[in-house]
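Retro notes
What went well: the complex prediction finally ran end to end.
Inputs used:
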Amino acid sequence: MSIHEVARRAKVSIATVSRTINGVSTVTPQLSRRVWRVIEELGYYPNTQARSLVSGRSRIFGLIVSEITNPFFPEIIQGFEDIAVQNNYEILTTSTVHDPKRIALSVRRMIERRVEGVAIVTFGMEEALFDDLKSRKIPLVFIDVGPPLPRISNIRIDYQHGIREAVQHLAALCHERIAFISGPLILKSAMARQRAFIESMEEIGLAVDPNHLIEGDHTMEGGIKALKKILNFPKRPTAVICSNDMTAIGVMRQSYEEGVHIPRDLSLVGFDDIRLAQFMIPPLTSIKMSQTEIARMAFNALLSEVQRDIPSPDGTEYVLRTSLVLRDSTAMAPAGARKKVSVLKKSAE
Amino acid sequence: MSIHEVARRAKVSIATVSRTINGVSTVTPQLSRRVWRVIEELGYYPNTQARSLVSGRSRIFGLIVSEITNPFFPEIIQGFEDIAVQNNYEILTTSTVHDPKRIALSVRRMIERRVEGVAIVTFGMEEALFDDLKSRKIPLVFIDVGPPLPRISNIRIDYQHGIREAVQHLAALCHERIAFISGPLILKSAMARQRAFIESMEEIGLAVDPNHLIEGDHTMEGGIKALKKILNFPKRPTAVICSNDMTAIGVMRQSYEEGVHIPRDLSLVGFDDIRLAQFMIPPLTSIKMSQTEIARMAFNALLSEVQRDIPSPDGTEYVLRTSLVLRDSTAMAPAGARKKVSVLKKSAE
DNA sequence: ATGAAAGCGCTAACAC
DNA sequence: GTGTTAGCGCTTTCAT
């Protein structure tokens, strides 16, 4: 069943049917009604493939995420889908599972389906893999990747803000030996978070023991491994900040295993503030990076780029701020670990 | 850049280019090489829209899930994508968020994109909403929905097996008052799980207190509410089985809040065995329903239906078995709650 | 205001 | 073995 069938039954030309569907104003109300009636009767839905073939616009945006099974991403996907639906866009989601081959394949799939734009939520992985997209002048939006370029927008995350809050919060609780479990340092974003941690520590006059910078991998298993390492240090940290919540969940899990009580023996701060964080035991204090906001910004970046006739000269930069959400996984540092002069005083001098 | 451009540069007809791309054997190796070289040089990717328009095959499968933010589903989506990619299919995923309007919209989006088949992983919600798909004779695969029909496959979940194991496990630990927190009972699958629980209890000679059948909603919040109710019962259950893991996580969370220790004061069993279950505190004993298997079965059901010339007369039924995975959230019933004669003996009589 | 017809990028049937 | 050509279902001129 095609537009011809509708035209035949409504006794009009296919052009009129097309105009009716697309709300072209010139169609007589009377004809329009007749056409719509037939459309309803038939349950006719236009063929999107044909439409995009002729219009040159697919109304599809691609969405590339690193790992759909990491709870951080589904929230972004849902947010993206919600706005896409409102704007009559379809969304082609692919999960790279951190595999360069899969990324290349994703890119290929996107191009073959002629997406109008792609949101790349892999937090700085192998930017070169997206060159194919760039050279085709397809609008792109990255998270946290370099300065924006023509047709390429960037959502910059203000890690510093939330991480500084976390460090200061811990300092106020008299923690001095604070460890940081990073993500894989090949990721620009993981690097940026670690740097923000170091700067926040220095800013407040706290020493960063290089041993206390542990490279994790943003998974629960990584958190487990990292905690094992930490517990073996001669001078154990009294608090740990993780580069994402999954890592923190792993840390919690292993702490339970080892009889380390959170927050009594160890204070813990996560990053991302995924929904799950508040349901952990104890509820996890975390640095919020709104997934809904990211989705919204990414979609709008793409949409506005597509709607523009001339591409923005330098792309657009959006900024998302992070901030600490206090829950129950942090507490005063164990008495034995505190110095006479509290850190707060020191920093107030 | 189209097939014409390739043809022009390779000095052949577009038909030859098409044949080359599609591996039609008649093309001379020499010409084939020439064409491929131009394709590489140009970075040419065929336009999928045009291809499906003419071939009448979109190579897209739809995947409708209830809630992408529930960790159960991303695993299915990932599994589905993995096989889809291997088979050169694209996947159009939509999340219904339990909203009938969204379901209807999903269906419409699927039809407009001319998907070749749809996997419906909503566990028995509002089957009628998919009538539009059915009437168009689009191959469908449901989870746990009625007997299969022509072009409609069904993956039946053998809830009984896993749930019986759980009940017997608890009984062996001398639990007698076992509660069940169900999902929303409008869902066929939630109903089926509850029924399996009741049958398993009866089978073993344990009474089911109707008060101990609590209707939840498959969310963490639902688990929290349900536990509050349970703690108010005059005769508290000593064990709880949940209709899914998210509910169980809510229960754990609220138990912590109320000072109820799991498993000492309350044994807990989840359902689904999502990856997260093993990272809970304590690690959650759960009834496994393999998400990867579901994805695999669903995809293959669709694929085999599409590849068949004549539709299978009655669709196909697949069966997935569930089974208990023991971890640390269950323990012996508190001494005070046990009767003199143990249940095990009773059932052995 | 409506219809006829061209053409989007591709495949496949048909010629040669 | 290769080229020519007729559509696939639609939008959009260009006539009328």
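What we learned: The first strand of chain A starts at residue 60 and ends at 65.
What to try next: split runs per interface for comparison.
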